[in-house]
């Protein structure tokens, strides 16, 4: 097929709507409100170190919980018979197909001070807990929303591990613990790595979860950016600068993950 | 063999400044089985693709029945191709695959049915119409690919290493099969392979290619018996190739000895390549041989033993039906007919 | 002998216990995933506005939902933008994927890297960057954020998914398939329509479905690129959740959940049936050579 020119419209589209906008972000980040070159936005960012730290911390905690909770599920489901596997995966994916605002909203009513969880605790005669509008609530929201992103890639990698590899290891005298530690886990690493990025990136950049479950008390990077474009703090230049920093964070985290994977192609969700 | 059907004139092919075909000239006659033979990268597939219309020569002309067809796209050429891995359409069954070309040319349905059935008969797959191509074995897919091409009544069938994916036994069967089909439909076959045995078995004409050049064109017997240079000699069959000096017509020196030979027309004392087929060397007692040496190895090859005989200047490969011992001293005899002299390449 | 037996019994018990433990654990995770949704659904039928106290059964919220012109408009916008964006990006993406396949390695890998940017990048950055582009270009060319910019944004993040799902199918294709069709008399266009397209159809359909769901589900990028006059369903939900407690949201969730569930079941039953058919066809052993 010689028809490479038929991809030209696509190439132009991607240049216009993917590359150009990112270049604009960079330009805006270094432009002062008067229109000249400036580094002032980055200098101003020192004020937000706390927010940066908190965003990274909460995203890391959420990612760690997702990994700890999700890996066993992926492992157990991947080794079930095909019918259970299929149904299990559908059950993991189904919530993802519902709008994530609705999923987050669901937790608002559960976590409220007089919400269902506290009512249940009171019913059991236990003291109530105050979770809503705390960092804890935000982390719960992240874990709930992004857990499937951790389970799916790990599942699809473990599922594809050739059974004969495992049998070969057993044949060579490995017990099931050794098989897992030396064979299955290393082979599932690409899935783990892509799961980690797929949870970390949306967690570190969210503003909806913190807004709904953090009650505006927990300010994250996403909130900070959103405020520069929609709030009364309107300042797209500063917003672009923060976006640029976030982009760097995202790229660095992906690069680290790729480094771990030693160039292996991360297992895509698709 | 009748008139010329296809002619390539000074065809040059360059990819990214790299010359793949070096100004080749080739004439293909009607109804012949012509094989392009050579190692990978020699330009044989490119030549085939130029005839099929998938590549346009950088320079030079392609003639078909005395019409220049350089600019005729593949779908307008009366040429069909059997591709290397068959390129069957996996979303269609056998019938639809074979019928594809007929449907494109809007052949009436009844006619399509008749001709597809006839073709499946020809390739020994009657009753396979409804089968999915993925469920067929390699050999069967091969037959479908041939039927799909021939059903369109092409003047020429191009085959690009069609047997490469099959195992040895099947390959042998298909060689006979292909020859039969060619004779039955009576059209020109242009066949590409790197397998010299395949080329010698099936072809009327063999074209030996290397590094973008045509080295020799001839019948299988000519090519085997009268290779024109050392490359052809070594590529086709096995050969001992040793450097020598052509003293004068019909007299050559190699291995520190003078030999009578049948070649002439070389400059006095011209350095040449001397080619001797292993089966032409006769193993005799040391004192009876023109060349003396020690047997270094003996390997049983089924019909014959392959022995390496070492003397001071060369290690000779010898084929013989009698077994001898490693370490034994022997003589090698050869007649003037067995010595082929070639210009240094 | 006896020891061996005891060992094997012990290990089988251990396996069963750990298997049971695994099942319980998986069950707990499923509970964590579905309990909140169940609560949402239950309270969509609650007669009072409370999100925690049950006050009797009602369908009022559903009726109110369908009378809410804001939500209905937003729903219409979402469907329209999703259908358009998915259709356009599927056609454009399929054509582009074919072209990309024919590029040399280096330009192709660069383009694939660019293709992955919208997929891996944080939504908020994609949204912000597109907003900057649309606002800047709008100032120059005299347009404002609206349905047009929303649609362009959706096409932009749908396209990469189409490319990603079509490309592997193209790669599986015998590299001579396109030539084979032309060799048999098909024009390049016929070869594409009658051979290439049917061969890669599963990838194209898959791309269409993914693009559509991505568009339906998107909130962040729409939020930044739709402007103030146009609202998608996700944006409407966002402003509702921010303003007040409103059981209409529960009703909406229920409807969405049930539709997704039905769709998934239909798709999977069909897929399972096709796979079984395909398997049956593959299992028929290739016959011996004749």
UniProtKB/TrEMBL annotation, chain A:
The UniProt family comment states: Belongs to the binding-protein-dependent transport system permease family. CysTW subfamily.
Keyword Membrane found? yes
What this protein is called in its record is Spermidine/putrescine transport system permease protein
PANTHER family given in the database record: INNER MEMBRANE ABC TRANSPORTER PERMEASE PROTEIN YDCU-RELATED (PTHR42929:SF1), INNER MEMBRANE ABC TRANSPORTER PERMEASE PROTEIN YDCU-RELATED-RELATED (PTHR42929)
Q: How does it sit in the membrane?
A: Multi-pass membrane protein
Q: Which Pfam families match?
A: BPD_transp_1
Could you confirm whether the keyword Membrane appears in this record?
A: yes
What PROSITE patterns does the annotation carry? ABC_TM1
Compartments where found: Cell membrane
Q: Which SUPFAM superfamilies match?
A: MetI-like (SSF161098)
Q: Where are the transmembrane segments?
A: 12-31, 51-77, 89-108, 128-155, 234-256
Automatic annotation (TrEMBL), chain B:
Q: What is this protein's function?
A: Part of the ABC transporter complex PotABCD involved in spermidine/putrescine import. Responsible for energy coupling to the transport system.
One Pfam family from the UniProt entry? ABC_tran
For this entry, the protein name equals: Spermidine/putrescine import ATP-binding protein PotA
Q: Give the CC-aspect GO terms.
A: ATP-binding cassette (ABC) transporter complex
Which residues does the UniProt record annotate as the domain ABC transporter? 6-236
Q: Which PROSITE patterns match?
A: ABC_TRANSPORTER_1, ABC_TRANSPORTER_2
What quaternary structure, including any partners, is listed in this protein's UniProt entry? The complex is composed of two ATP-binding proteins (PotA), two transmembrane proteins (PotB and PotC) and a solute-binding protein (PotD).
Q: Which reaction does it catalyse?
A: ATP + H2O + polyamine-[polyamine-binding protein]Side 1 = ADP + phosphate + polyamineSide 2 + [polyamine-binding protein]Side 1
Q: What does the UniProt keyword field contain?
A: ATP-binding, Cell membrane, Membrane, Nucleotide-binding, Translocase, Transport
InterPro entries from the UniProt entry: AAA+_ATPase, ABC_SmlMolc_Importer, ABC_transporter-like_ATP-bd, ABC_transporter-like_CS, Mo/tungstate-bd_C_term_dom, P-loop_NTPase, PotA-like, PotA_ATP-bd
Checking NCBIfam families in the record gives: MMSYN1_0197, potA
Q: Which GO terms describe its molecular function?
A: ABC-type putrescine transporter activity; ATP binding; ATP hydrolysis activity
Q: Which family does it belong to?
A: Belongs to the ABC transporter superfamily. Spermidine/putrescine importer (TC 3.A.1.11.1) family.
At the top level, the lineage of the source is Bacteria
Q: What EC identifiers does the entry list?
A: 7.6.2.11
TrEMBL record, chain C:
**UniProt entry keywords in alphabetical sequence:** Cell membrane, Membrane, Transmembrane, Transmembrane helix, Transport
Q: Its topology with respect to the membrane? A: Multi-pass membrane protein
A single Gene Ontology biological process assigned to it is: transmembrane transport
Q: Which PROSITE patterns match?
A: ABC_TM1 (PS50928)
Pfam families, A to Z: BPD_transp_1 (PF00528)
An example Gene Ontology CC term for this record: plasma membrane
Recorded hits in InterPro entries, A to Z, give: Bact_Polyamine_Transport, MetI-like, MetI-like_sf
Instruction: Tell me the compartments it is located in.
Output: Cell membrane
Q: Give the chief site where it resides.
A: membrane
Regions that span the bilayer = 21-45, 74-98, 110-134, 140-164, 203-225, 249-269
For the keyword rRNA-binding, the answer is: no
Q: Where is the ABC transmembrane type-1 domain?
A: 75-267
Family indicated by similarity:
Belongs to the binding-protein-dependent transport system permease family. CysTW subfamily.
PANTHER family from the entry? PUTRESCINE TRANSPORT SYSTEM PERMEASE PROTEIN POTI
What protein name does the entry list? Spermidine/putrescine transport system permease protein
Q: Which species does this protein come from? A: Papillibacter cinnamivorans DSM 12816
